[in-house]
Amino acid sequence: MADAEIIKLILQGDKEKFALLVGQYQKLVFRTCMGFLHDKDDSEDLTQDVFIQAYQSLPRFRGNAAFSTWLYRIAVNASLNKIRKSPMMLIKQQFDNFAGDKKEGELSVPLTDGEDPETIMIRDEHVKWVQRALDSLPENQRTAIVLSKYDDLPQKEIAEIMDTTEGAVEALLQRAKKNLYKKLAAQRRI
User: Fold this and answer.
1) CA distance readout (Å), 106 to 24, 34, 43, 124, 159
2) Taken in order 71, 74, 75, 77, is the CA torsion positive or negative?
3) pTM > 0.85
4) Phi and psi angles of residue 65, each rounded to the nearest 5 degrees, phi first
5) Which element (helix H / strand E) includes 4?
6) Which structural domains are found in the chain, ordered by start?
7) Positions of the chain with pLDDT under 70
8) What are the b/e assignments for 16-32, b being 16+ CB within 10 Å?
9) DSSP strands (E only) in 27-108
10) What are the pLDDT digits (tens) for 88-112?
11) Residue whose C-alpha is closest to residue 142's, from 33, 28, 44, 25
């Protein structure tokens, strides 16, 4: 059943059909939230919030864009709002990094047979460098890179989500990559 048909049924009173949309898009929304928050528990909570907001806003969905595009926009905005409203979240992440706390679901490198602990620790530290560098990007660059790399979306869809042109997305991605490279290169010198 197509998204438009499901939405029509929901708006006509068949509220249980919303579970179909949740089932179809839950992983995508979670991955987007995780790209911004880097924390499994916070991302799961925010994913639920995004679907609640989408359900409540469904009567205002005009259908000018795909439902997935509209939902991504809600997820991106909710993620950015959570970061803006919670400076304590950034402090908590920095403390967790400093203290060495590792929660299930955080971005990490899986163990493979034969790898020594030093190699694993170095890789984990590199992951933390990337997360910190990503978090320090300007909001629009971070959004473009998360949608491109975490969600593997084409530039056309990213442009729709960000309400901009494909050319602007290309420029944002180039600047984001350049900024990430600079930040990571500086980190290596430390």
Assistant:
1) 23, 8, 10, 11, 28
2) positive
3) no
4) -120, 170
5) helix 3-11
6) 1-106 (1.10.1740.10), 110-190 (1.10.10.10)
7) 87-116, 187-190
8) ebbeebeeebeebbbbb
9) none
10) 555 555 555 444 444 444 444 444 4
11) 33
